[in-house]
Design a protein that fits this description.
There is one protein chain. The protein has 1 helix and 8 strands, in the order αββββββββ. With 176 residues, the chain is α+β, with helices and mostly antiparallel strands. It has a single domain, classed as minor pseudopilin epsh fold (3-Layer(bab) Sandwich), CATH 3.55.40.10. The longest helix has 52 residues, at 14-65. This is Prepilin-type N-terminal cleavage/methylation domain-containing protein. Keywords: Membrane, Transmembrane, Transmembrane helix.
């Protein structure tokens, strides 16, 4: 004689699944703003490191080639531009015969990160002296940012670079 077996329902009911799904959506919504801010900070720190390496490259060229090396910058109107050159009057373009390296080649100022300002201008460029790589009389700064976050690169007369944040704090960068 066949037995009447009752099958027990294995799995979750619809209300249990909906409640679990709502909790997951709530947790995701709470985690998104910090994740977005972290991504913006990371992009800004990466660009600051690239700019620092770009300046170190110019300094190294002055030391190894025993020639004065200029870093010509243009910020503000139009796209930002940085050029490593052997002449102080070199235009800020990629095709200029006097340019050694351009900011586009170094992948600077990509995405939402921009060069907001600089104490250096095409008229008064940054100069690394031959053989020593020092920048006596040419201390100054660059400010890069994306939205409310900014990082300032300060170059002293000895050619040392220091990073700090003048506005909204950025993780792992000290305040100015």
């Amino acid at each position: 004689m066949p037995e009447n077996r009752k099958c027990s329902a294995a799995g979750f009911s619809l209300p249990e699944l909906l409640i679990t799904l709502m909790v997951l959506v709530l947790i995701t919504q709470l985690a998104m703003p910090p994740l977005t801010r972290w991504q913006q900070e990371n992009a800004l720190r990466t660009q600051a490191q690239r700019l620092s390496l770009f300046l170190r490259d110019a300094q190294q060229l002055a030391i190894t080639l025993n020639k004065p090396v200029y870093v010509i910058s243009r910020a503000g109107n139009g796209p930002a531009c940085l050029v490593i050159a052997y002449a102080a009057n070199c235009p800020c373009t990629t095709q200029a015969p006097c340019s050694v390296r351009h900011s586009q080649e170094a992948q600077l100022f990509r995405g939402r990160v921009a060069l907001l300002g600089s104490t250096y201008t095409p008229v008064k460029p940054l100069l690394f002296q031959a053989l020593s790589g020092l920048s006596f009389g040419h201390a100054g700064s660059f400010v890069i940012g994306n939205g409310s976050m900014q990082i300032k690169l300060i170059l002293n007369n000895l050619g040392r670079i220091r990073l700090c944040t003048p506005a909204d704090p950025v993780t792992a960068i000290v305040s100015c």
